[in-house]
Amino acid sequence: MKTYLHVLLLTLLSISCKGQSDANAERNVGGPCQDCEAVLDFKALNIAPKAIDTLPGFENNKPKLKITGTVFQRDGKTPAENTLLYLYHTDRKGIYQPSKNPFGWEKTHGQYRGWLKTGKDGKFTFYTFRPAPYPKVQEPEHIHIYVKEPNTIPYYMDSYFFESDPKLTSEKRRSQKNRGGSGIVKLEKKNGIWTANRKLILGLNIPDYK
Ligand SMILES: [Fe+2]
């Protein structure tokens, strides 16, 4: 009887440990993404992402932007807390320009980048400036946005594009995958700053997301 109880205890323990490790495992979603590890640069930089933040270069560049939004779970209704967002964009010449001493993925993504983390209401706000389009290729101006949920690896969503951008052709609009929902936003001037809002839906149009 004693042995039987012992075996039962060990079995229960192993089931509970397995359950725990599965719960902590990061789901592999979003398909190939070479630079998604950039999302994790904040750790080595000792940055504690907040729901509201200002990207470098805000003071010295214009037009200034205030981008607000809410992250929702896949149902499109439940606010998603503890969601990490990573943003980066070009400078006013359309270049991903690093600073003099770039760290990690800043060498590729440039210095105008930042991290946010949603609170219970899923809301976030970031201040930055409007990037310029790439100098030599026909590509609309855009702000990249990547996301990391507590239990997924980082994945990317559709970049922010601006409704008023003449380079945002109908062909370009049609080619969007709408990852996380459409990234095309309409800028409106409020209190002297160009403002836009976007709803982000985790997992929407994201490969391997169940
Ligand atoms: Fe880009």
List the helices and strands and how they pair.
Layout: H1 2-24, H2 41-44, E1 52-54, E2 64-72, E3 84-89, H3 106-109, E4 113-117, E5 123-129, E6 143-148, E7 155-162, H4 170-175, E8 184-185, E9 188-190, E10 193-201
Parallel strand pairs: 1-5, 2-10, 7-8
Antiparallel strand pairs: 2-5, 3-4, 3-6, 6-7, 9-10
Write up this protein:
This protein is an alpha/beta fold. It has one domain: Aromatic compound dioxygenase (Protocatechuate 3,4-Dioxygenase, subunit A), CATH 2.60.130.10. The strands form two sheets. Strands 1-5-2-10-9 form a five-stranded mixed beta sheet, with no helix packed on it. 30% of the residues are buried. The chain binds fe (ii) ion. Fe (ii) ion binds next to loops.
* Topology order in helix (H) and strand (E) letters: HHEEEHEEEEHEEE
Bound molecules: fe (ii) ion
Could you give the count of β-strands?
A: 10
Number of domains: 1
Q: What structural category characterises the helix and strand content?
A: alpha/beta
Can you list the strand order of the major beta sheet?
1-5-2-10-9
Largest sheet: 5 strands, mixed
Cα gyration radius (Å)? 20 Å
Mind telling me which CATH architecture this is?
Answer: Sandwich
CATH homologous superfamily designation = Aromatic compound dioxygenase
Shape: globular
What does the average pLDDT come to?
Answer: 92
- Distinct helical segment count: 4
First-last Cα distance? 44 Å
CATH topology: Protocatechuate 3,4-Dioxygenase, subunit A
Q: What percent strand?
A: 25-35%
Low-confidence stretches: 12-19
Helix proportion of residues, in percent?
Answer: 10-25%
Just give the CATH class: Mainly Beta
